[in-house]
């Protein structure tokens, strides 16, 4: 499993050094890389040059995002060094990992911001991670992604990855875009955006999209559909600026789950289809029956509204306030595989743990023969050799609401800059779950449920169920201070401290029997800090060193999964320590950002809701590389690479000690070339692509099953026909590689896995004005 990561790191570093050692062309006409500006990671959101920042941050412009052609928000995170994003589950519900931080799924160490304010205080709740709450469209100006760095002190104190999406703003010039997109999987999408001036120093930007498709994995119906509307109002002041925005989204798609790894099943397979999307489940002590549409999959139906105020006063004072209000539903409907596929004939011989025959096939009481198995919808007879699999019909109804405000005040005192901040967030979540609801289905695209199998026909005898109704609310109050001292013209020192109070009130009715069996009233404080030093070697190169100590605070699911520890007095606050050493080089036509990191993270993992948690400590060390070189004949090369090593050093399960952390590759690399060809009349064609290669990974912390590495190729072309009219063609997974992003997280030894998306093509025709 272990690859020779040191050799790979040396090879990549040598290649980059040779490229960046070349002389910069004198006649190259382009924006200087070292003048790139970032606003994420500073206590007041004050803009700084990227090359001056004392932390690892990636920024992607709107055009860079278009070239990557992400299928979802989480798909975009693959362009960030140190991040492993499993976006193969559809438009929502991704698994996102950062720098070897441990996790079983979702994204416990990811925060998604819009205009500098978190969309939702908890980074992850079961069946909800932050990227589900955000959709990409033409209203996004750029994205910034901060790893480690000052994260434990500012904003919501996320120690891992914070991604910040900045919206486009209006100006004195009225401009906009209209774009139609289609695909080889019958995508129909219209995007539009227009911006301009309402009055003197008052500007607007308005935009959104409408979209519908059967999905990249064809479900036989329009399984992905949605729309979004965004309004951003900007007011320029004599001493600053104010932004107020609202974004309303209703977008969902089928939840793609691990599939059986057997002949006849490939990366285009999806269990959901017209024969099974309408299904009835039983829940609660009385076996109440209800029908749901599992074609709704996962998504977000809600809104985010907020604003940002940034002001400068006399004598070096700066004021900043960033806030938002989020409310909506993030429901999940899925057909979840359970165990290995079997032939119908094998069901008659299945036994329980004690060796007792389960008699899953029905027997005719007169003849003693097995009754033919039929499709519950089609009535079709299925042969004894037909492959079937237990599929759980899971329903999660989730309603969330939050209000967040981040206020800070900065004073410049000669060489010392002092910031005082107050972060507050009130949040709540109401859940209703019915998990399990097992039933045997045909292993085929849209494979239907079966009758004349006793497990299916007698609902009380089939598999397991986990039902709950819960309601929880919480609050976070944090005071933070940041000091920045300019020791010399080249050396800057900084220190940040955060004192946080975290309160949770939570009640759980497991089994839906009206009994609250897990009540929680929690009130704890914690302190986080960061310290860094930045030394500029030249005006466009430097080094930095940083250390921080942060925390992963407990939210609702942490108490449900670790309730016995909570009762025993455990505060459930998990410590995260990080160390970073970075090098930065940026010039007119080349740049290199390299960061070495080491971290130690406490964590809690649960294979299935309701099961006991495993407590562990994981160490990770690695190197992140982000390099860019632009040649004077129109060719640009970008390299994004991560090499890391993880190890579980402590665990309540001693068999895990010494293992690698699950799901995360030892190395990954993305090489993105683009070539611009100028046409007669001044217009141009740009050809671009991305080569992605990843290492093997383990399915689980037990390191029992291996996910093989793979290499994936994407291609694209952009043709500027006129100054206004343009065409873009994108091909994802050109060679139709069948790489796996995960196995079966509930049963690592079962032959199930989730493929990356199959080959697909998108064509867009745009009009800019």
From TrEMBL:
<feature type="domain" description="TonB-dependent receptor-like beta-barrel">
    <location>
        <begin position="406"/>
        <end position="734"/>
    </location>
</feature>
<keyword id="KW-0998">Cell outer membrane</keyword>
<comment type="similarity">
    <text>Belongs to the TonB-dependent receptor family.</text>
</comment>
<keyword id="KW-0472">Membrane</keyword>
<dbReference type="GO" id="GO:0009279">
    <property type="term" value="C:cell outer membrane"/>
</dbReference>
<dbReference type="InterPro" id="IPR039426">
    <property type="entry name" value="TonB-dep_rcpt-like"/>
</dbReference>
<keyword id="KW-0408">Iron</keyword>
<feature type="signal peptide">
    <location>
        <begin position="1"/>
        <end position="21"/>
    </location>
</feature>
<dbReference type="GO" id="GO:0015344">
    <property type="term" value="F:siderophore uptake transmembrane transporter activity"/>
</dbReference>
<keyword id="KW-0813">Transport</keyword>
<feature type="domain" description="TonB-dependent receptor plug">
    <location>
        <begin position="50"/>
        <end position="158"/>
    </location>
</feature>
<dbReference type="InterPro" id="IPR012910">
    <property type="entry name" value="Plug_dom"/>
</dbReference>
<dbReference type="InterPro" id="IPR037066">
    <property type="entry name" value="Plug_dom_sf"/>
</dbReference>
<keyword id="KW-0798">TonB box</keyword>
<keyword id="KW-1134">Transmembrane beta strand</keyword>
<keyword id="KW-0675">Receptor</keyword>
<dbReference type="InterPro" id="IPR000531">
    <property type="entry name" value="Beta-barrel_TonB"/>
</dbReference>
<protein>
    <submittedName>
        <fullName>TonB-dependent receptor</fullName>
    </submittedName>
</protein>
<dbReference type="InterPro" id="IPR036942">
    <property type="entry name" value="Beta-barrel_TonB_sf"/>
</dbReference>
<keyword id="KW-0812">Transmembrane</keyword>
<dbReference type="Pfam" id="PF00593">
    <property type="entry name" value="TonB_dep_Rec_b-barrel"/>
</dbReference>
<keyword id="KW-0410">Iron transport</keyword>
<keyword id="KW-0732">Signal</keyword>
<keyword id="KW-0406">Ion transport</keyword>
<dbReference type="Pfam" id="PF07715">
    <property type="entry name" value="Plug"/>
</dbReference>
């Amino acid at each position: 499993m272990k690859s020779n990561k040191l050799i790979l790191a040396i090879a990549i570093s040598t290649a980059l050094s040779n490229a960046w050692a070349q002389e910069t062309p004198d006649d190259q006409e382009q924006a200087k890389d070292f003048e790139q500006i970032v606003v994420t990671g500073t206590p007041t959101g004050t803009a700084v040059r990227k090359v001056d920042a004392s932390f690892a941050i990636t920024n992607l412009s709107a055009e860079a995002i278009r070239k990557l052609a992400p299928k979802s928000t989480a798909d975009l995170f693959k362009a960030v060094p140190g991040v492993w994003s499993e976006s193969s589950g559809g438009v929502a519900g991704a698994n996102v990992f950062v720098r070897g931080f441990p996790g079983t799924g979702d994204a416990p160490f990811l925060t998604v911001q819009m205009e500098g304010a978190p969309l939702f205080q908890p980074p992850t709740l079961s069946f909800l991670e932050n990227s589900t709450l955000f959709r990409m469209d033409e209203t996004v100006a750029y994205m910034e992604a901060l790893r480690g760095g000052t994260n434990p002190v500012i904003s919501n104190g996320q120690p891992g990855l914070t991604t910040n999406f900045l919206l486009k703003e209006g100006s004195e010039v009225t401009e906009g875009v209209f774009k139609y997109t289609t695909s080889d999987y019958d995508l129909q999408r219209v995007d539009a955006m227009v911006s301009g001036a309402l009055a003197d120093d008052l500007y607007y930007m308005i935009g959104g999209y409408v979209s519908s498709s059967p999905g990249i994995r064809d479900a036989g119906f329009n399984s992905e559909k949605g729309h979004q509307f965004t309004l951003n109002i900007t007011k320029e002041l004599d001493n600053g600026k104010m932004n107020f925005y609202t974004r309303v989204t209703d977008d969902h798609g089928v939840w793609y789950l691990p599939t059986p790894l057997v002949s006849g099943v490939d990366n285009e397979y999806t269990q959901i289809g017209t024969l099974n999307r309408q299904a009835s489940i039983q829940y609660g002590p009385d076996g109440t029956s209800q029908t749901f549409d599992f074609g709704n999959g996962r998504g977000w139906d809600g809104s985010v509204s907020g604003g940002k105020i940034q002001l400068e006063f006399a004598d070096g004072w700066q004021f900043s306030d960033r806030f938002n209000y989020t409310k909506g539903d993030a429901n999940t409907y899925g057909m979840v595989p359970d165990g290995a596929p079997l032939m119908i004939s094998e069901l008659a011989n299945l036994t329980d743990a004690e060796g007792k025959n389960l008699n899953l096939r029905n027997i005719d009481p007169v003849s003693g023969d097995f009754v033919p198995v039929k499709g519950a919808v089609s009535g079709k007879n299925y042969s004894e050799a037909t492959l079937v699999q237990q599929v759980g019909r899971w329903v999660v109804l989730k309603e969330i609401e939050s209000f967040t405000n981040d206020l800070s005040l900065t004073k410049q005192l000669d060489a010392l800059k002092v910031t005082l901040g107050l972060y507050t967030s009130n949040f709540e979540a109401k859940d209703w779950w019915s998990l399990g609801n097992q039933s045997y289905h045909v292993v085929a695209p849209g494979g239907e449920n079966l009758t004349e199998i006793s497990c299916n026909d007698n609902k009380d005898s089939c598999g397991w169920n986990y039902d709950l109704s819960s309601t929880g609310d919480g609050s976070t109050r944090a005071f933070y201070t940041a000091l920045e001292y300019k020791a010399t013209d080249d050396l800057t020192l900084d220190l940040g401290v955060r004192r946080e109070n975290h309160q949770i009130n939570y009640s759980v009715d497991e089994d839906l029997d009206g009994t609250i069996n897990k009540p929680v009233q929690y009130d704890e404080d914690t302190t986080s800090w960061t310290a860094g030093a930045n030394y500029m070697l030249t005006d466009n190169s430097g080094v930095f060193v940083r250390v921080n100590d942060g925390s992963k605070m407990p939210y609702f699911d942490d108490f449900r999964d670790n309730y016995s520890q909570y009762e025993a007095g455990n505060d459930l606050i998990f410590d995260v320590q990080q160390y970073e050493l970075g090098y930065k080089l940026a010039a007119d036509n080349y740049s290199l950002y390299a960061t070495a990191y080491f971290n130690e993270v406490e964590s809690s993992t649960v294979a299935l809701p309701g099961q006991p948690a495993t407590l562990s400590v994981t160490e990770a060390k690695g190197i992140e590389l982000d390099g860019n070189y632009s040649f004077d004949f129109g060719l640009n090369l970008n390299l994004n690479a991560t090499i890391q090593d993880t190890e579980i050093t402590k665990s309540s399960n001693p068999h895990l000690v010494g293992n690698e952390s699950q799901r995360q590759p030892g190395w990954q690399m993305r090489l993105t070339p683009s070539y611009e060809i100028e046409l007669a009349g001044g217009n141009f064609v740009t050809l671009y692509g991305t080569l992605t290669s990843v290492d093997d990974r383990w399915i689980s912390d037990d390191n029992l099953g291996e996910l093989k590495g793979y290499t994936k190729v994407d291609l694209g072309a952009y043709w500027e026909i006129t100054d206004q009219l343009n065409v873009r063609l994108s091909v994802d997974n050109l060679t139709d590689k069948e790489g796996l992003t995960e196995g079966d997280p509930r049963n690592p030894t079962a032959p199930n896995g989730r493929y990356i998306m199959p080959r697909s093509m998108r064509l867009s025709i745009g009009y800019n004005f």
